[in-house]
Every structure is written in C-alpha cells, then in structure tokens.
Amino acid sequence: MIDSLKTIGIAILFILLAIFLVAQVFGFASRIFYFLIENWYVIIVMAVIGLVLKNKSDKEKQ
C-alpha cells in the first residue's frame, strides 16, 4: 500500500513537472498553477482513480 502511494506520488510530481515545463514554453505557467491550486480536489480524485486501477491490475496479475 505504501509503495503504491509512493509510486502514485512520484507519478503525479512528474506529470505536474511536465505540465509546468510545457506551460513555461507557452508562457502561461501561472494560470495552470492557479488552476491546480483552485482544483486540488481534481488531483486527489485522479490519484484515487489511479490507485484503484493499479490495485485492479495487480489483482488480475495474481
């Protein structure tokens, strides 16, 4: 459980970093950053969905 949370956390960080770098290129990083702050619950929902999907795939492998 802890390992999957760590994996999802790292994945989210990489996704945010990628979004931020792309946004820097186009010059609207601050707008995306404010969007993420205002919609933090969306990120949590995405993380939960990712966890559920990962658990499903792990159970199917066993």
UniProtKB/TrEMBL annotation:
TM region(s), chain numbering: 7-26, 32-53
Keywords, comma-separated and alphabetical: Membrane, Transmembrane, Transmembrane helix
Protein name per UniProt: Uncharacterized protein
